[in-house]
Specification:
- The chain is mainly beta and 371 residues long.
- The protein has two domains: 7-51, no CATH class; 60-352, Kelch-type beta propeller (Neuraminidase), CATH 2.120.10.
- 13% of the residues lie in helices and 42% in strands.
- It is built from six helices and 26 strands.
- It has a five-stranded antiparallel sheet with strand order 4-5-6-7-26, with no helix packed on it. Strands 12, 13, 14, 15 and 16 form a five-stranded antiparallel sheet that branches. It has a four-stranded antiparallel sheet with strand order 3-2-1-25.
- Strand 1 and strand 2 (78-83) form a beta hairpin.
- It is globular and about 65 Å long.
- The two termini are 41 Å apart.
- The relative contact order is 0.14.
- InterPro entries: F-box-assoc_dom_typ3, F-box-assoc_interact_dom, F-box-like_dom_sf, F-box_dom, SCF_F-box_component.
- Residues 6-51 form the F-box domain.
- It comes from Quercus suber.
- This is F-box protein cpr1.
- It holds the Pfam family FBA_3.
């Protein structure tokens, strides 16, 4: 007599079941919630969600590119492309985001631990969205236009949105954070003459911006630590000429400083030991475009899974965006061919995560109408 799978699983210790399930991709775990009440309780538990996230980072095997088409007002303005263990990309899949509005587009503000912070200008609505499990949660309305940053506070085990606001009548800076409510931060912006010159990036428990006095090139980074709610100033590896563009990115958890020279090449520096300014290391220079024309910007997205010698990059031209593989040692590039990619898009890298499993469901009306 054959033993049913349910009977077999009953004889396995909970520790073994947990160890096996925590290594699976999120899409499988969402389906496996219906196996039994015990599995549903286990998968929805906070300890399991944290364990799964930790192993997702450690194994680096469950990653997806979430991309926003640069065309407002279309039914599907977001899509996903999975990244497999053998360094192959999956199919282009259209996904419906929770703040969809036919009148205006929804912007990606930032991404952290598989959660994407998005903002819709039409209703001035902000949401935290887990696109891989199609769950989201809207944030409370706040009178200031939109947040500048989003990250994880390991001290309180909470996710926070933060903005830096200049109150003209007070002549000073203030910050606001989110824990499903807004509050003022007491620490002061380091220098009143500095203005933010880049989008925020999250790394090592802190949010980071390039800052500079108006008209000058950024040579400092302001970091805001979510656990202590304190600012810190980090010096960039070099002061770029004023004719160059500079920006911050995060590659495999490490802070990157990028110098864009005359739309001809990008120099990329990596902070090998976070917080140690002497650890800034130049890692590569990428020149010209994948189709032989000049590019505006090359954004590093993630490294190859075997030896990390290749980097997936988003290469931005004036009228076209490409995904490319760049070989650091050979200094060669190869275009990633994925069918149905739009002409222009911007991307965010998402790790497989069960966060917001208890959030609201993203309802796709187009699927409902097709039933």
């Amino acid at each position: 007599m054959l033993t049913s799978p349910t009977t077999v699983m009953c004889y396995l210790p909970l520790e073994i079941i947990t160890a096996v399930l925590s290594r699976l991709p999120v899409k499988s775990l969402v389906r496996f919630q219906s196996v039994s009440k015990g599995w549903h309780t286990l998968i929805n538990g906070q300890d399991f969600i944290k364990l799964h996230l930790h192993r997702s980072f450690k194994s680096n095997t469950d990653r997806t590119l979430i991309a926003q088409e640069q065309n407002a007002g279309i039914p599907f303005d977001f899509f996903s492309v999975s990244f497999h263990e053998d360094n192959r990309f999956g199919k282009h899949l259209e996904i419906y985001q929770p703040l969809h509005c036919s009148n205006t587009s929804t912007d990606i503000l930032s991404c952290c631990n598989g959660l994407v912070c998005i903002y819709n200008q039409w209703g001035q609505v902000i949401a935290i969205w887990n696109p891989l499990i199609r769950k989201y949660r809207k944030l409370p309305r706040e009178p200031i236009e939109k947040p500048l940053a989003f990250g994880y506070d390991s001290h309180t085990d909470d996710y926070k949105a933060l903005r830096v606001v200049r109150f003209l009548n007070m002549g000073e800076e203030r910050s606001l954070k989110l824990s499903y409510c807004w509050k003022k931060i007491e620490d002061q912006w380091p220098n009143k003459e500095w203005s933010i010159r880049s989008d925020s990036v999250f790394s090592n428990g802190a949010l980071h911006w390039l800052v500079a006095v108006n008209g000058q090139s950024p040579e400092n980074i302001v970091a805001f630590y979510l656990a202590t709610e304190k600012f810190r100033v980090i010096t960039t590896p070099l002061k770029a000429p004023t004719s160059c563009l500079t920006c911050l990115e995060v590659l495999e958890g490490q802070l990157c400083f990028i110098v864009i020279v005359d739309e001809m090449y990008n120099d990329v520096w990596l902070m090998k030991e976070y917080g140690e300014e002497s650890s800034w290391t130049w890692i590569y220079k990428i020149e010209q475009g994948v189709v032989g024309s000049t590019f505006e910007y090359c954004k590093p997205l993630m490294c190859s899974k075997n030896n990390g010698k290749k980097i997936v990059m988003e290469e931005c031209h004036m009228y076209r965006t490409y995904l490319i593989w760049y070989d650091i040692e050979k200094k060669t590039r190869k275009r990633v061919k994925i069918r149905k990619l739009p002409a222009l898009f911007q991307t965010a890298t998402c790790i497989g995560s069960l966060l917001l499993l208890d959030g609201d469901n993203v309802i796709d009306p187009t699927q409902k109408n097709n039933r």
